[in-house]
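R.M. (postdoc): so does anyone remember the format we settled on? I'll just put the structure tokens first.
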């Protein structure tokens, strides 16, 4: 009887081993993010000892560092979200079998803008001054292709735009900064002078403009009556 029980136990163990995956493949094999909040998909394929897929086996997903990336998954598909700079590993575990995908997150950490001082002129045809902007990630490497926003402390003197440019608004002095994904440059000194011609400046209005309009209307009505 005892040999029979041992044989059954061995068969049960062998059956369990055969019904559990021995390896897990993850696609893509790695992920790289350049922005907090970015997401990407992962797909796991559990495999038996002979390499055949076992899609009925479900993953338990986990991240080695949720300050870098989090993972949410249902069965063998998961979504990874970048949460901060650094490196982490996303894991799928099934009955002792494990698949891993390394994740790297690099975010903009520093921004420089040149020149350090800008002299703007108010002209008949408004024209901006373009700033030379460079962003760097948390590892110190240059980053390109990111949106650049410039803004002025006093928008009565100058205004920035979404292209890293400054526009003259009124005479005076202020400072401006450039922002790329939350990283802000050092202040830039800005001075604005009025270089418009007399024709380009708004005409000064004196008196009550409505009185002049009413006077013109009366004169036109009187001419019409005189012509009848």
């Amino acid at each position: 009887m005892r040999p029979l029980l041992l044989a059954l136990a061995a068969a049960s163990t062998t059956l369990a081993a055969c019904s559990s995956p021995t390896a897990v493949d993850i696609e893509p094999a790695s992920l790289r993010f350049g922005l907090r909040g970015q997401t990407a998909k992962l797909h796991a394929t559990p495999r038996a000892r002979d390499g055949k897929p076992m899609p009925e086996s479900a993953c338990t997903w986990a991240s080695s560092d949720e300050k870098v990336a989090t993972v949410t998954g249902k069965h063998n598909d998961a979504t990874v979200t970048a949460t901060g700079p650094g490196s982490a590993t996303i894991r799928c575990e099934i009955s002792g079998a494990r698949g891993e995908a390394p994740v790297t997150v690099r975010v903009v950490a520093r921004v420089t803008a040149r020149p350090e001082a800008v002299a703007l002129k108010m002209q008949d045809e408004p024209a901006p001054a373009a700033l030379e902007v460079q962003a760097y990630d948390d590892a110190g490497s240059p980053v390109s292709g990111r949106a650049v926003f410039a803004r002025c402390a006093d928008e009565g003197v100058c205004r920035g735009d979404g292209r890293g440019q400054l526009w003259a608004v009124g005479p005076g002095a202020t400072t401006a900064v450039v922002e790329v994904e939350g990283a802000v440059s050092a202040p830039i000194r800005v001075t604005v002078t009025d270089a418009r011609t007399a024709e380009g400046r708004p005409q000064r209005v004196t008196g009550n403009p409505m009185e002049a309009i009413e006077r013109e209307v009366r004169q036109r009505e009187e001419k019409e009556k005189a012509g009848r």
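R.M.: ...and that's the designed sequence above, right after the tokens. Also worth knowing: Confidence is low (pLDDT under 50) at residues 4-17. The domain at 18-105 is CATH 2.60.40.10 (Immunoglobulin-like).
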